[in-house]
Amino acid sequence: MNRKFKIGLFWLLMIGAVAGAAYGYHETYGLKEDAAKQLTPVVIGYQKADPVDISRQHGVLTKTLKKAGYKVTFKEFQSGAALNTALNAGNIDYARAGDVPPVAAQANGMDFVYVAAGADKVHGSGIEVKKSGSIATLADLKGKRIAYTKGTSSQYMVLMALRKAGLTTKDVTLVDMGQNAAAVAFAKGTIDAWATWDPYSATAEVTGGAKLLVDDTGLAKTGITC
């Protein structure tokens, strides 16, 4: 079996497994332990609450790939940019990211192959600000500190939002940081706005006193994913 066919087979199985978990598909696979069978190890990188994570939590992907001869190890990352770094270093075999990170990686010369694609995630990214703050419109971002993660949907989101408001990067202070660090900075008030995505945005709104200033609606023809 050649390498291209093996990769295609792997991802056909993976897509089926993810779809099953996403739609609440539950099945007893009746897998039999075969001590003599050698499973091929594969490491899959994912982000919190993405389709791969959902399938991982249900156990569907692990069981399906085990039946096909793969032993899966999952590794969680904060962003698609971090996934790309790990993939480029050979620390993971497959990475699930949104549309912006792979484009940014290709622009920087990273060599990889797309093996599957999912649907657009509309309303998946946005810019959060404090409910108690003075920022009510995109124009109010002028002179503010905005956190984002380079090479992800958050960077694209900030650039599109500034353009829509008639501002440039010179009109604000952009702070590149990981999403966990941005969550802490937002809570402490050391940043004024936070370009992020679910589940970070949902958590900030529920427990962090945040409100959505703008999402990807109107800033892109399709949803922007991390």
TrEMBL record:
| Coiled coil region boundaries | none
Q: Lineage from the top down?
A: Bacteria, Bacillati, Bacillota, Bacilli, Lactobacillales
Keyword list (alphabetical) reads: Signal, Transport
Give the source species.
Answer: Lacticaseibacillus manihotivorans DSM 13343 = JCM 12514
Kindly indicate where the leader peptide sits in this chain.
none
Family, per entry: Belongs to the bacterial solute-binding protein SsuA/TauA family.
Q: Where is the SsuA/THI5-like domain?
A: 66-217
Protein name in UniProt? Putative aliphatic sulfonates-binding protein
Give the matching InterPro entries. SsuA/THI5 (IPR015168)
Q: Does the keyword Signal apply?
A: yes
State its role. Part of a binding-protein-dependent transport system for aliphatic sulfonates. Putative binding protein.
